[in-house]
Amino acid sequence: MTTAQPLHIDSPRSAPPRRNRAHTNTELYAWLFMRVSGVLLVILVLGHLFIMNILDGGVQRINFGFVAGRYASPFWQVWDLLMLWLAMLHGTNGLRTVINDYTRRDATRFTLKMVLYTATTLVIALGTLVIFTFDPNIK
Fold it and tell me: What parts of the sequence cross the membrane (predicted)?
């Protein structure tokens, strides 16, 4: 008769098995970016809403001339550029996390991320181009 081997269960405090990959802090930096960019976005967006809706008289004043006057100032160009970049990168990072969490196949994950990164790059590039090349005198 053979005797059964006892089941071996690792101690809950034992270290997890090491992987052969190089250790990187990419996820830590992504997590930290989400917290910092979130705080900055709250400040920028609430400031934008307060200035546009309360100090500048509301949305009924917004027209081509208003935007032309606003983009004549480097301050507003930088403000809007920061909102654009931070919002797009914050959203992209969040959606990247969702894609990593919910896709099962590597090929699907890769495809979705490439679509996400392409769309993000296009929106950031076009938005930056509009902010810095806006000219109200083009005829």
Answer: 28-55, 75-93, 114-134
